[in-house]
Amino acid sequence: MTNPRPKVGIFGLTGCAGVQLQILNCEDRLLRLAQRLEIVDWVMAKSVNDHTCRLDVAFIEGVVASERDLETLKEVRARAPTLVALGTCAVWGGLPAMHNEIPREVLEREVYHQETSFLDTVEARPATHFVPFEFTLPGCPIEREEFLKLVNALLLGTRPELPTVPVCWECTTRGNLCRVVYFEEVCCGSMTRGGCGARCPSHGVACAGCRGPVEEPNFDANITMFADRGISWVEIAKKMRNFSAPVWMTLGLEKEVQRGRER
Which CATH number does 7-156 carry? Predict the structure, then answer.
């Protein structure tokens, strides 16, 4: 962003708005940040917004789960040369995309128990499946420090350096006992992108994979590790699909599940 005070928009598609709330939780640091950029379109935080102006950068959270979501996403993409996907829903699909195998009409009927013709729902998919993004920042929700570093890098015209190590690495550096080795729990830390500081394992809770997969998950090594401790690959695959089902299918998850069953 080269403008003296770049224009910024923050938008939410279908989701819980947890990412936007996390940005608001930056509190005084957000106020200082606002002095360096101009937030012109953010419905959650502002009562007066410009919904048509050109933006220098736009942030998107949530999944595309309706025709309106897709329309909004395309409009925002057209307004901004730099588009950033915030949160696991926008990047990987998150919880809304974990049961796409169930027909939409079944889900609609289960939720509303009545006429659903007024709905314009579509199969929930991450925003990254529909338009190109310059940057992505996963997390459920995102980490405040990562967000601030990303924005600062954009303001300086550089690429943000984000963690590429798995949660397992962070867990080890904190001296935690491995949830798989010592407790024989289904833990996704070996295949999940770090950056959270292994928060859950540090509090005695196995990693649920909420930050999405690392770039090259080692399926074979993980299948062996889980099998050696009586944990089936089906169990670990089911847990990993909670937050990133679409991408796991792309990476060949279903094939690996079958291979795990045959072992």
Answer: 3.40.50.700
